[in-house]
Design a protein that fits this description.
Pfam families: HSP20 (PF00011). InterPro entries: A-crystallin/Hsp20_dom, HSP20-like_chaperone, Small_HSP. Belongs to the small heat shock protein (HSP20) family. This protein has 137 residues and is mainly β. The protein has a domain of 90 residues: Immunoglobulin-like (Sandwich), CATH 2.60.40.790. The protein contains 1 helix and 7 strands; from the N terminus they run αβββββββ. The protein has a 4-stranded antiparallel β-sheet, with no helix packed on it. Strands 3-4-5 form a 3-stranded antiparallel β-sheet, with no helix packed on it. Strand 1 and strand 2 form a beta hairpin. The protein starts with 5 loop residues before the first helix and ends in a 20-residue tail after the last strand.
């Protein structure tokens, strides 16, 4: 059973007043790493309906949006409610050398995974060294 703590409740109230429901989209914690010829992005989106997750690529801008909605319950007296509804947003500039046509995304157990492949042109390549006559200009 949770114990009443006036200081903790005051901290929550202060955070709610500062941040408030109108503070706009929240950011989601994410990790990004390179694994060979692809980048892998993972973002935490617990309690999000997978149907609300939207991943867009516009040029070199990757945008991730999600919405958390909570069911309305009538005749309920909340003791605490920390899981607030709202929208989540994250935007990343992909830069050059990304194969934007083959980006894939999946959502599993509250984690969004986005695979971002490196384009063929951006991959390291070996340049053949020839011997013999030099080329004349």
């Amino acid at each position: 059973m949770a114990q009443f703590s006036p200081i903790r409740d005051m901290e929550r109230l202060a955070e709610a007043l500062i941040e408030g429901p109108g503070r706009g989209p929240r950011q989601m914690p994410m990790d990004l790493y390179r694994d060979g010829d692809r980048y892998v992005l993972t973002a935490d989106l617990p309690g999000i309906d997978p149907g609300s997750v939207d991943v867009d690529v516009d040029g070199q801008l990757l945008t991730i949006r999600a919405e958390r909605t909570l069911p309305e319950q009538e005749n309920v007296k909340w003791i605490t409610r920390e899981r607030t509804p709202g929208s989540f947003l994250r935007q990343l500039s992909l830069g050059q050398g990304i194969d934007t046509e083959n980006i894939t995304a999946s959502y599993d157990n509250g984690v969004l995974s986005v695979t971002i492949p490196v384009s063929e042109r951006a991959k390291p390549r070996k340049v053949e060294v020839t011997t013999g006559k030099t080329l004349e200009a």
